[in-house]
Amino acid sequence: MGMPGGMEWILIALVVLLLFGGKKIPELMKGLGSGIKNFKKAVKDDDESDIVKADEIEKKDNKETSDKPEETKKV
Fold first, then answer.
1. Cα→Cα distances 35→17, 23, 41, 70, Å
2. Is residue 55 assigned to a domain?
3. What is the pLDDT of residue 47?
4. 32 is in which domain, residue-wise?
5. What are the pLDDT tens digits along the chain (75 aa)?
6. How remote is the C-alpha of 66 from its chain's centroid?
7. Residues of 24-57 as b/e, b for ≥16 C-beta within 10 angstroms?
8. pLDDT score at 1
9. HSE-up of 48 (CA within 13 Å, CB side)?
10. In a domain, 43, yes or no
């Protein structure tokens, strides 16, 4: 059982057309498109916030290591 072929897609399109009607389909596609757009935006914002958090942690680690007095070694 693989991907649907040409006839299957036509049958699916006809069933969707019968269920929702010609006027309702553009509204459904608009809603689907805006949902996908919002999802991509949320993923992008999440990735950017992870990068910002990583940068903040790195800066904090660098600051902590620079604040510690260096140990003197006796030879």
1. 21, 20, 10, 54
2. yes
3. 76
4. 22-60
5. 678 788 999 999 899 888 888 888 888 889 999 999 999 998 888 777 777 777 777 777 776 666 555 555 555
6. 36
7. eeeeeeeeeeeeeeeeeeeeeeeeeeeeeeeeee
8. 66
9. 6
10. yes
Token pair in block for residue 55: 């940068």
* The total number of structural domains that make up the chain: 1
Residue 31 belongs to a domain: yes
pLDDT score of 6: 87
Token reading at 52:
């910002």
- Residue 66 belongs to a domain: no
pLDDT of 65: 67
Q: What is the per-residue pLDDT for 55?
A: 72
Percent of the chain as helix, strand, coil, to the nearest 5:
80, 0, 20
**Distance, CA of 39 to CA of 63 (rounded, Å):** 36
Q: What's the one-letter identity of residue 40? A: K
